């Protein structure tokens, strides 16, 4: 590398350091640890050529020395500020100046710059404080150790430049010297080889002596331990460390985060935040695992498992760190959170390859071969570093005592910073729409100046008598026109509202304050208010037309509750889910509080369940608040039959098949266990198994300890086949330490499990029972999904020892493969996960956030369309859509699942035709998956997708990636030119949050990544309704009126000066009748406060009416208040009022003296003061005509602002000036006040009359509601009908420009009065005439199949394994209804799926029931243990199956009237029902189960 190249690199490095947001390096890096850096990576001074950025981050925009120039530069980027700066410079020339004092010229601009600068400094100071709290956080690094990757000292730039200059001229001589040195080195090498040969012969010929050194041997693979420390440490093992934070070893020193460098060793303790991206070298755990919480990165609170590198796992203390020698070759930094590629390399020393020898006499040694030294092999060992070996900045270490790591990336090159980036600068829609209005004012200003310039040139050429007495300033008419242009530019400067921008910022800042302090959006549990992070887009909240929402964590709580299960064909679980409660309320809005009734029944059943459990066995880990409630579980366990064995298998599988970590929050209470898992579903499964009595206690190395029904069971964990998005399942292979059985337990998606079940069932009773279990489980899962539950299947397989050992060898070989390791491991896993036997299924409820259905309902009535973008599968998203009110039962669901571009286009075309046919009488919803979106978001399909989406009332996008979310938002935002809002809670939502016009982050219990990128942070989704319907609508109305008022008062004030040019003594002379102080203070003092206070405090209606009449929000969507027509009407009104404000006082002045005392008050400045006072009062009075709420605050502000003019005039008139002294005498005359009153009435009369006519003929929406609220009664039938319809019907009002032009064509007769109403602003209701449907219809555009949706739609990728089950799932309603399925499940006590003949029965029962000692309780059923193969058992089973078929076909009517919650609860409870509440089905169960009948009807005592 030449010196000049190094110099250029030095300049570039210096430049990058100064950039607060440096671009990540695109070159890989090599990090050396305790090894010498190669010469090619050192400069001429021996320092490393590569310099990495510091770990210090800075999100603030300014420093103390850059604030002034940078802030001024940003402010003067605005055209308005540049315009006023130009005017200030122009007025420095006396010929153009209209003021005697330069201070008055600079004052307005200086005030604006100072106020804006203070605001920017205040905001940036908050960023500085946040940066400092992060940069000065403490971590631990090694004391007295040098990092070779960091330069020891810095060479000054001038020394490097001088050295480069000298080296350039010494280049030729240096090359000659190098060739001479090479010759000398070759001579030296030959000599050294000769000397070495001589020494070798001398040693061999020497007399006997004792060997005191180790004999060198060539490297043999396997002789060297896989460790960077070289020799294996004998007898030293890691001790199990508790999670208590003990004092840190003094060899570790405290270091601030900002001082960390690439290549530093870092010591982390439990609950520490990770300060940089580090490679995990060693952990406190024996297996090298550690657990991290990544909520700051991806929004997930679940723990992730990371592993240390095998080669560095023996590093336990600072001495080991200093002794280890290795280097890491790393990829460049990038933003992908889930991938990392690097290699750890270290060299094997010859001394490490040699084995120690015992000292023996040399006579016993054989002569050494001369070439033995040449056999030494220089070897370098490697180990791959993947994402599972790296802890990312922002993570938190959990459940691990300590971790030692090595810093890979620092500062802005860490993944969290690369993902954060800069939040895009957003401008509100009104702010963008204001710019054309400002340009229109510039055009008006230019026209006025040109008119005055031309007129001045004409007047200059016209001879007058003044030519004999006055000398002209210009030498020609052209020059006179030129000077007049710039003079009038100064006079009319106020036509551009300089204070408008700062006033808008003040109003929006106040709106942000009101949003932040709103108690209705404050979450007390989390102590979290709504946090506005972008203050200048509050008015956009009132114009949102499309909302794009994530599902998990946004609509749902991401808190999973185990609610149902099916075991061996029998369902368990009582209570109503949120989805079922919502469905019942939609079917019958007058239904009472179902949830309250359900909670009472659940509490009663829970107490009964706990009582039966306590009588059956001692449960030390009992949970009195379990979400899974069904006393039937303990009845079946107490029966000691086949169903009991199945329950043991089922809940034991839940307790064993997982990767959760048990925690003890209270060390004094060892029976209070909390589970931390990688997914909340997994934690819910294990926790429910614990609640039932199968408690996962601990995992010690490879031993899993389970407390099953009060007895300890130990299992050896042989293998864990982990879950991933491709496998969609997880398996564990266990060996029981009690009986030595080896069993594989597998859980996963139903489609995946069913595909791997044994397809060759024997044609015997056991085979038929297993087939029946599969069919009934499939039906049960469909019912569960209809209730909005997430389903999983549980299966098992008993392995012989020979079968397992053969497979384990293949698995080990695949796991150690160098190439295609993942593919080989997956293939081996497929081999063992075959021929499974189904045990049952689980159903977990992802709890909706509080108030989500109500919020979505009110937003839909407000005219807002909601699209759900989620990574979940289709059926889960659809179920949540029904639960949260996004989808309704009368909708037609259109499913698009294309697999290529052509297929996607065809499906979308067919969907458009389908929707076009049904749109006139049925609402439609679109469901599309991520595979289809991959093609649909590209031209030309995206235009068709957009057209289809706008025709549908709701859109759900499933299986979408973060980038696809952003593309969907961009498609709607740019394609329809509408306002969009995106809301999410995780890192996968950041892209769409930044893409939308307004981004909202959920700042509850999830990560902070979405909040960091958002404009508003709220704790729950339900707060969105008030944020939009109340604060957004108010802000839109206030900002619109305030901006129009600003334009009005500035144009009116300026044109008064223009009219004077027509009537002054010398026409178009450029004379200004106002004192310059009036021009300066007009916008700053006299008229600014009324506009600002109106923009802050005005309310058209109380907040409750925004929820009662959500259709009011359509005013913002249609942009009724800031339309171009209203702006030009305002300009016309300002021109008219300016003419009146000039003409009336002017006629008074030309009529002669009007002073009663005879004072001469007909001068220019007297006229100016007279007109200025009237103009100020009229401008402030107009604010009163635009506001809705006349409060005492507004009255006081308007009066005081007008009074400031008179106060200033009274004070300034006392100053002894030539032109203004004594001007306050005007206000002592009654003529002034009479003229003020007359002028005010003439100015306001046309506006008042126009407003009245528009209010009566074409009122705005809020005008109608205000009349309803304030008057309390309607003046005609139209208003009355409107009020009734607004209360009763969903939103079908006047469509916005983004919606389809197809309207509902069928109306009721009473609504005919709206059909001929052309009112563009009035509320209108179109009442849909349709036949309600009990069942949602879903149309699959791929297959063309039209089916009734029962809540269990299959994703396209999950469809193949289920072809044989579709017929059984979508059957007649009498066979698939929830009641019939539960009744059949309760009546069937099926045989165990693994029941076999006598000799093979042991193989199926991998956890035999006989090993448990269960007590009997008083009310327990009488047990009569029978073999499943007995004749009596078969007869009973056949009889019950016959009853089931008879009951299903004859007795169950799908059209029965809805039963109360108590009756549905009764049907589920079985033997614990009140006899008075039993239905026919329950009575049949009693007849054929004598022991249950006896329990219900105990014999009466004689």
Summary of the model, kept short:
Helix content is 45%, strand content 13%.
Strand order of the largest sheet: 14-33-32-31-15-27-30-29-28-34-35
* Structural class by secondary-structure content: alpha+beta
Broad shape? globular
Largest sheet: 11 strands, mixed
State the distance separating the first and last CA atoms: 110 Å
What share of the residues does DSSP label as strand, in percent? 5-15%
Q: How many distinct beta strands?
A: 35
Low-confidence stretches: 10-22, 172-217, 351-377, 1273-1334, 1350-1403, 1416-1502
In which range does the helix fraction lie? 40-55%
List the total number of helices. Answer: 49
Radius of gyration: 42 Å
* Overall pLDDT level: 75
Structure write-up:
There is one protein chain. This protein is α+β, with helices and mostly antiparallel strands and 1502 residues long. Helix content is 45%, strand content 13%. The chain has 49 helices and 35 strands. The strands form seven sheets. An eleven-stranded mixed β-sheet has the order 14-33-32-31-15-27-30-29-28-34-35, sandwiched between helices. The chain has a nine-stranded antiparallel β-sheet with strand order 17-16-26-25-24-23-22-21-20, sandwiched between helices. Strands 1-8-9-10 form a four-stranded antiparallel β-sheet. α36 packs antiparallel against α37. The radius of gyration is 42 Å and the shape is globular. The protein starts with a helix and ends in a 6-residue tail after the last helix.
């Amino acid at each position: 590398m030449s010196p000049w190249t190094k110099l250029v690199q030095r300049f570039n490095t210096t430049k990058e350091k100064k950039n607060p947001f440096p671009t990540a390096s695109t070159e890989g890096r090599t990090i050396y640890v305790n090894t010498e850096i190669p010469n090619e990576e050192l400069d001429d001074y021996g320092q490393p050529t590569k310099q990495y950025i510091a770990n210090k981050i800075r999100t603030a925009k300014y420093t103390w020395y850059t604030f002034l120039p940078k802030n001024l530069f940003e402010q003067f980027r605005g055209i308005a500020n540049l315009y006023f700066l130009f005017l200030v410079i122009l007025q420095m020339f006396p010929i153009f100046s209209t003021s005697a004092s330069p201070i008055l010229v600079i004052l307005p601009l200086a005030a604006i710059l100072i106020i804006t600068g203070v605001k920017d400094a205040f905001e940036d100071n908050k960023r500085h404080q946040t940066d400092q709290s992060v940069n000065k956080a403490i971590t631990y690094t090694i004391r007295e150790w040098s990092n070779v990757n960091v330069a020891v000292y810095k060479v000054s730039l001038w020394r490097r430049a001088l050295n480069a200059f000298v080296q350039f001229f010494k280049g030729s001589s240096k090359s000659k010297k190098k060739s001479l040195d090479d010759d000398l080195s070759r001579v030296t090498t030959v000599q050294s080889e000769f000397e070495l040969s001589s020494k070798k012969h001398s040693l061999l010929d020497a007399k006997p002596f004792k060997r005191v050194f180790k004999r060198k041997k060539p490297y043999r693979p396997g002789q060297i331990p896989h460790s960077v420390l070289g020799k294996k440490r004998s007898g030293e093992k890691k001790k199990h460390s508790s999670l208590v934070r003990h004092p840190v070893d003094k060899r570790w020193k405290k270091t601030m985060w900002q001082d960390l460098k690439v290549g530093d060793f870092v010591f982390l303790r439990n609950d520490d935040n990770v300060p940089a991206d580090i490679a995990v070298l060693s952990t406190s755990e024996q297996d090298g695992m550690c657990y991290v919480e990544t909520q700051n990165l991806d929004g997930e609170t679940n723990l992730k498992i990371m592993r240390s590198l095998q080669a560095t796992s023996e590093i336990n203390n600072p001495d080991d760190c200093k002794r280890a020698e290795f280097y890491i070759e790393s990829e460049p930094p990038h933003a992908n959170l889930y991938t990392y590629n690097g290699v750890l390399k270290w060299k094997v020393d010859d001394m490490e390859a040699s084995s120690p020898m015992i000292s023996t006499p040399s006579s016993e040694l054989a002569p050494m071969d001369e070439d033995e030294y040449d056999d030494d092999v220089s070897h370098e060992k490697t180990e791959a570093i993947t994402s599972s070996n790296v802890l990312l900045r922002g993570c938190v270490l959990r459940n691990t005592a300590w971790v030692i790591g090595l810093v890979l990336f620092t500062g802005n090159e860490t993944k969290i910073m690369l993902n954060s980036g800069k939040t895009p600068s957003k401008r509100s829609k009104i702010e963008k729409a204001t710019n054309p209005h400002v340009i229109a004012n510039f055009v008006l200003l230019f026209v006025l100046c040109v008119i005055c310039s031309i007129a001045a040139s004409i007047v200059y050429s016209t001879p007058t008598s003044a030519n004999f007495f006055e000398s002209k300033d210009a030498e020609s008419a052209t020059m006179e026109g030129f000077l007049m242009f710039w003079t009038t530019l100064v006079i009319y400067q106020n036509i551009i509202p300089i204070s408008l921008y700062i006033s808008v910022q003040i109003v929006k800042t106040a709106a942000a304050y009101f949003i932040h302090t709103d108690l209705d959006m404050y979450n007390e549990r989390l102590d979290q208010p709504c946090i506005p992070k972008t203050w200048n887009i509050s008015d956009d909240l009132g114009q949102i037309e499309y909302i794009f929402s994530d599902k998990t964590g946004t609509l749902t709580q991401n808190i999973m509750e185990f609610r149902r299960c099916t075991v061996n064909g029998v369902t368990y679980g009582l209570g109503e889910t949120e989805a079922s409660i919502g469905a019942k309320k939609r079917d019958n809005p007058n239904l009472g509080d179902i949830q309250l009734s359900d909670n009472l029944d659940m509490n009663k059943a829970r107490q009964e369940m706990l009582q039966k459990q306590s009588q059956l066995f001692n449960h030390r880990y009992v949970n009195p608040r379990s979400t899974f409630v069904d006393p039937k579980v303990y009845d079946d366990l107490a029966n000691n039959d086949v169903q009991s064995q199945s329950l043991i298998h089922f809940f034991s599988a839940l307790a064993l098949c997982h990767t959760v970590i048990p925690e003890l929050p209270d060390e004094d209470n060892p029976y209070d266990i909390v589970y931390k898992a990688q997914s909340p579903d997994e934690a819910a499964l294990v926790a429910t198994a614990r609640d039932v009595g199968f408690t996962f206690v601990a995992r010690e190395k490879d031993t899993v300890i389970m407390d099953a029904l009060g007895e300890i069971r130990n299992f050896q964990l042989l293998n864990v086949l982990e879950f991933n998005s491709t496998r969609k399942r997880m398996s564990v292979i266990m060996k029981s330490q009690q009986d030595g059985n080896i069993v594989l337990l597998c859980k996963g998606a139903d489609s995946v499990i069913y595909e791997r079940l044994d397809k060759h069932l024997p044609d015997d009773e056991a085979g038929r029972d297993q087939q029946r279990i599969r069919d009934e489980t499939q039906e049960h899962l469909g019912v569960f999904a209809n209730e909005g539950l997430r389903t999983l299947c549980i299966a098992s397989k008993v392995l012989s020892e020979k079968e397992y050992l053969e497979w384990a060898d293949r698995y080990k070989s695949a796991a150690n493969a160098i190439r295609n390791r993942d593919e080989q491991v997956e293939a081996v896993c497929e081999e063992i996960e075959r021929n499974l036997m189904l045990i049952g299924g689980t159903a977990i409820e992802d709890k909706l956030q509080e108030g989500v259905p109500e919020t979505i309902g009110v937003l839909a009535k407000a005219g807002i369309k909601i699209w759900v973008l989620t990574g979940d599968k289709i059926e889960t998203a659809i179920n949540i859509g029904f639960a949260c009110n996004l989808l309704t039962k009368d909708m037609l669901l259109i499913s698009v699942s294309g697999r290529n571009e052509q297929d996607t286009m065809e499906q979308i075309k067919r969907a458009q035709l389908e929707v076009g046919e049904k749109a006139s009488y049925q609402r439609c919803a679109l469901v599309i998956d991520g595979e289809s979106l991959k093609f649909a978001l590209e031209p030309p399909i995206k235009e068709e997708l957009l057209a289809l989406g706008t025709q549908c009332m709701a859109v759900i996008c499933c299986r979408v990636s973060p980038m696809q979310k952003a593309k969907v938002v961009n498609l709607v935002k740019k394609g329809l030119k509408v306002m969009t809002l995106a809301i999410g809670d995780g890192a996968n939502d950041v892209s769409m949050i930044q893409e939308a016009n307004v981004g909202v982050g959920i700042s509850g219990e999830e990560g902070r990544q979405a909040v960091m990128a958002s404009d508003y942070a709220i704790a729950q989704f339900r707060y969105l309704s008030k944020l939009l319907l109340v604060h957004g609508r108010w802000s839109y109305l206030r900002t619109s009126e305030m901006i129009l008022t600003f334009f009005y008062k500035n144009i009116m004030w300026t044109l008064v000066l223009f009219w004077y040019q027509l009537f002054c003594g010398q026409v178009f002379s450029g004379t200004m009748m106002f004192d310059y102080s009036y021009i300066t203070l007009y916008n700053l003092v006299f008229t600014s406060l009324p506009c600002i206070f109106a923009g802050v405090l005005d309310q058209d209606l109380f907040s409750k009416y925004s929820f009662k009449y959500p259709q009011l929000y359509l005013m913002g969507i249609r942009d009724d208040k800031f339309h171009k027509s209203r702006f030009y009407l305002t300009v016309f009104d300002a021109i008219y009022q300016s003419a009146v404000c000039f003409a009336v006082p002017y006629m008074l002045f030309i009529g002669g003296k009007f002073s009663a005392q005879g004072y001469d008050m007909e001068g220019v400045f007297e006229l100016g003061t007279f007109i200025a006072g009237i103009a100020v009062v009229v401008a402030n009075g107009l604010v009163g005509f635009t506001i809705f709420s006349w409060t005492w605050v507004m009255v006081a502000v308007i009066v005081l602002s007008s009074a400031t003019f008179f106060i200033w005039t009274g004070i300034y008139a006392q100053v002894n000036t030539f032109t203004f002294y004594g001007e306050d005498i005007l206000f002592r005359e009654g003529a002034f006040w009479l003229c003020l009153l007359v002028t005010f009435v003439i100015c306001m009369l046309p506006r008042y009359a126009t407003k009245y006519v528009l209010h009566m003929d074409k009122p705005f929406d809020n005008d109608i509601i205000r009349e309803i609220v304030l008057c309390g009664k309607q003046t005609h039938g139209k208003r009355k009908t409107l009020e009734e319809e607004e209360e009763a019907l969903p939103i079908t009002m006047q469509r916005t420009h983004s919606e389809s032009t197809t309207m509902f064509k069928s109306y009721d007769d009473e609504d005919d009065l709206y059909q001929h109403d052309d009112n563009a602003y009035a509320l209108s209701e179109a009442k849909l005439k349709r036949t309600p449907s009990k069942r949602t219809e879903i149309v699959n555009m791929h297959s063309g199949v039209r089916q009734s949706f029962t809540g269990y739609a299959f994703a396209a990728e999950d469809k193949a394994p289920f072809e044989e089950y579709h017929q059984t799932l979508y059957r007649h309603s009498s066979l698939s209804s929830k009641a019939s399925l539960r009744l059949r499940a309760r009546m069937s006590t099926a045989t165990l799926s693994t029941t076999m003949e006598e000799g093979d029965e042991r193989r199926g029962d991998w956890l035999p029931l006989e090993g448990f000692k269960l007590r009997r309780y008083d009310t327990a059923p009488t047990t009569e243990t029978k073999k499943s193969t007995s004749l009596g058992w078969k007869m009973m089973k056949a009889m019950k199956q016959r009853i089931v078929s008879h009951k299903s076909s004859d007795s169950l009517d799908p059209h029965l009237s809805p039963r109360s919650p108590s009756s549905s609860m009764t049907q589920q409870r079985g033997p614990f029902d009140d006899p008075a509440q039993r239905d026919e089905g329950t009575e049949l169960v009693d007849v054929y189960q004598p022991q249950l009948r006896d329990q219900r009807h105990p014999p009466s005592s004689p």
